[in-house]
Each structure stands twice: as structure tokens, then as C-alpha cells.
Amino acid sequence: xNTILRTLLFEWKDRKLPPIIERDTHLDTSLQEGTxxxxxxxxxxxxxxxxxxxxxxxxxxxxxxxxxxxxxxxEDERIITPSTDLLTGLIPEIQAxxxxxxxxxxxxxxxxxxxxxxxxxxxxxxxxxxxxxTGSSSKMSSAxxxxxxxGRSWEIMVNPLTFKEFLRFKKTNIDFEKLDxxxxxxxxxxxxxxxxxxxxxxxxxxxxxxxxxQELLQTYFQTxxxxxxxxxxxxxxxxxxxxxxxxxxNSSYITISKLANSLKSMNIPVGKSxxxxxxxxxxxxxxxxxxxxxxxxxxxxxQYPRKVYFVDTGFMTxxxxxxxxxxxxxxxxxxxxxxxxxxxxxxxxxxxKGNEVDFAILSEGKTTALYQVCFDLTDEETQxxxxxxxxxxxxxxxxxxxNLLTLEKPDNYKPPQEIKIISxxxxxx
Length: 429
Hints:
This is AAA family ATPase. InterPro entries: AAA_14 (IPR041682), DUF4143 (IPR025420), P-loop_NTPase (IPR027417). It comes from Candidatus Gottesmanbacteria bacterium RIFCSPLOWO2_01_FULL_42_22. Pfam families: AAA_14, DUF4143. By secondary structure, this protein is of the alpha/beta class. The strands form 3 sheets. A 6-stranded mixed sheet has the order 8-10-11-12-13-14. Strands 2-3-4-1-5 form a 5-stranded parallel sheet. The chain has a 3-stranded antiparallel sheet with strand order 6-9-7. The protein contains 16 helices and 14 strands. The longest helix is centred in the middle third of the chain and has 22 residues. It has 2 domains: 156 residues, Rossmann fold, CATH 3.40.50; 265 residues, no CATH class. Helix 15 links the parallel strand 12 and strand 13.
């Protein structure tokens, strides 16, 4: 194992960093004073966690020699079986290779190594090394972090590209202030926003030619299924897992009973408890989020259907069994993630008459905002339905912050005074 480490370290000594497109998320590389904590970078596979490390390394190398800033990727194919011995020998091997201990140690996908958290805690307690680690499992998130690291870590969550970052990756700018009166600018916005909606916002996909995007997304999907879910949780029934994932991608609402029945109807008999376990594994990989109902009359939210949203709309396009793109569902998915980044508590709302609002934002037990998402608001019947649901929910929840999100504001439609219409350009600018 020391031979592999030595090889990786010698390679690192002369390795050139790839070109980096700066993200809006940055790592704090300033020296810590008082408390030595680990910085944990979490998020879905391929969202750019490694490049966030590279971005930090590039900054550090401006003032530190290479041997003081050491990077190891534990997904390197030469590390066939990551073991605790690999970590135990890491600092001594760095010292032997470079003649000193590192000041900064950046470790990619560390969760693959058994007992990684205990090793991290020992380093924090016994060394003055600043640690940065990444992981593609929620087990490394602040909510599920092992006991030994509670209070000893800072979490940085990396998401797919925001629309502003997407434009940066596409090497283009949009003058949002001119959209309402410059037709060419609006046409360019629509073209780029459609790509963002349909193919998603994973960095490499944004940089890939259109004809190759679906193929790349399908490759990512296979990796997530195999490595982040099946192997990590030792799932033998690969067919059930893959079929369940495709059912989810083609569903707006789910219940465990309906999913189990759908699998049985396809001659894949799995019990409800297995389906429930698979759902928790899928969420742990950051692939999917569930949204629960909010209604004061609802005692047990788990008894009601949940809405599902995916880490990236590209998967919904590349893996959907439906022949036409559901732009409304894609739009709602990216709205969910923007709201999720800005708010801790969110639900969907539905009253006993079937009136539904897509997102209810809560703070200290009170509803602070309601958001209804409607991709195309040109139809009068649609306008009436969406506005009616918003107003009823606002009255029931005593909320006056009512928002209707749409691709473009209709020219000849004025909503009731209490409702604010927000265009995609306004919301994502």
C-alpha cells in the first residue's frame, strides 16, 4: 500500500492542474486560529467538488511550495481496496517523500476508506495540518457526520451550476436589464435557458457538445447506480434498483406502496421495506430529494404522497421513458433547488379540495412565502387555476407573500394585486 501512496505522491509533485473555471463557491484557505477543524465538501458526483479543491490549491500554491500542499484522490483506480492502513501510513509517507509534513492536505472521496472519520479526528487532535475532504454521500454531511467529528467540521455543499455559473461556463453574458425590450437578447436568453433546463447543469455536461450530452449523462447515471448506491450499500438486486430509479424519474409523486406495486407488476417482487431502504440510499447519494406535504390538518406527513426532485434535470431528460420533454416539470425541478439553497424548511401544500401550491417556505413554524410554478401562463384557464390555489393557500396559511413563477410574463394578463408574477429571467438572474 505504501508503494501506491509513494507513486501518487511523486505524481502529485510534478502534476499540472487542469484549466479551472471559477465557481461562486470558494474554500476558505486562511490559516485557522484557535480551533483546528476539517472542511468537508459534500455533494453529488460530478458537481465539481474536485475542481473546488483545485481552485483552492491554485490559490495556495501562489504562496506555498508544492510539498506543503498535498492532494490525494481515493477513487484513483490504482487504489484497488482502500483500507485503514492507507490512511495510517499517509502522513509518514508524505514526510518521507517530501522531507516534511504537509501544511494543507486535500483528500478526495475519503469516505471510501473504512474508519476515515476516526483518522480525521486523530489528525485534528495531534497535527497542525489543515484538512479538506470531499465525499459523494450524505454520510459526510453535517446532519449525518460521525460522532467524533461533531463540532469539528465545516461543511461546504456543492451543487450543480447556477444559471449565472452556467453562463460563465458557456463563456457568454446576458444583459438581464435589456430582456424586456431587446428581442435578440431575449432570444439568446431563451436559447441558453432551454439548454440549462433540458440538459441540466453538471459542469462537464455544460461544456460538452449537444450531441454528446445525453450519452455523458447516461454514463454518470450508471456510475451513480453502480458505485454510489449498489456497491456502497451492497445491493444484490440490481434490476430492482435500476427499475426503481427509472420509475422515480418518471414520477412527480410517490408513495412506497405504489412503487412496490409497480415493481411487482413488472415481475420484480420487492417488499415495501426494501423500497423504503432503496429510497434512503438514493437520497444519500444526493441523486434525489423528497418534498413532504404541509397542512396543519395533516397529522402524519408520511401517509401522504411525496413529491420528488432530482439533483439535475439532465437525468430527467436522458433517462425519461416519455417521448416529449415535460418542460413544466423540468422548470419546477430547478426552482426547487434554488429555493432549497436559500431556505431550510419547505413543503408542498394541498388542501382538502385538491388546491395545491408547489412550495411553502416555513420559518419558526410560520409560512413566510408561497411559490406556484407554471412554465406557460398564457392559457386563461391555467391562470385562473394557479391563482385560485395560491390565494386559498395564502388565506389558509395566513401568508401574504404569494409568488407565481413562469417562463415569461404574459403580455395581457394582470394578476390579483396580492400576487407577484416572477419570470425565469428575474428569478435566476
